[in-house]
Amino acid sequence: EVQLVESGGGLVQPGRSLKLSCVASGFTFNNYWMTWIRQAPGKGLEWVASITNTGGSTYYPDSVKGRFTISRDNAKSTLYLQMNSLRSEDTATYYCTRVQYSGAFDYWGQGVMVTVSS
Amino acid sequence: DVVLTQTPPTLSATIGQSVSISCRSSQSLLHSNGNTYLNWLLQRPGQPPQLLIYLVSRLESGVPNRFSGSGSGTDFTLKISGVEAEDLGVYYCVQSTHALWTFGGGTKLELK
Prior knowledge:
Distance between the termini of chain A: 40 Å
Distance between the termini of chain B: 36 Å
Number of strands of chain A: 11
Order of helices and strands of chain B: EEEEEEEEEEE
Order of helices and strands of chain A: EEEEEEEEEEE
Structural class of chain A: mainly beta
Largest interface: A-B, 19 and 23 residues
Helix content of chain B: under 10%
Shape of chain B: globular
Radius of gyration of chain A: 13 Å
Number of strands of chain B: 11
Strand content of chain B: over 45%
Oligomer: heterodimer
Number of helices of chain A: 0
């Protein structure tokens, strides 16, 4: 059974940093691209960051480029999201997702809440 | 940037009714490789989203066949043939043909 379990969320002040983790199990982690997606309270879904299966390439939308860094440790089957210079608009539930060969997000974690507030 | 517009934003249905949700793209989603990377997700209340349909019309494993997807180019439709109570929630279309991923704004399906 595929499982994705996020951790590392919490309350953080604007301008500070936070690092999320996602432990994967039930599949061969290093065969898949992985992605972080977020959802602000009561809002829709927003793509945040993606990484290739080897970790050799990463991708970000303009809203987080230069502030967020996605990485992975294939030996530990773990995905990370380092978030720096956090803003109030980064407040959201962050989901770890697996990317299917077609580009679809076929498995999702339960999500972890990040609140940016003074 | 590609914009996905979903209509209607809210849909009221009775159990057993068939409904359709539209997703319109600001650009064609036909990739140069011949694939169209348009998927549908369902987010039930308090749950993470789940994949329903990928590549326009392919049903994800375990998804009931009352769900179907169709369309091409810029116009796509998700149809539910006989709504059941477990289908309530917010539906999202998402594309990955252009500049990685963008989501539609969502369509909330609720009971009439």
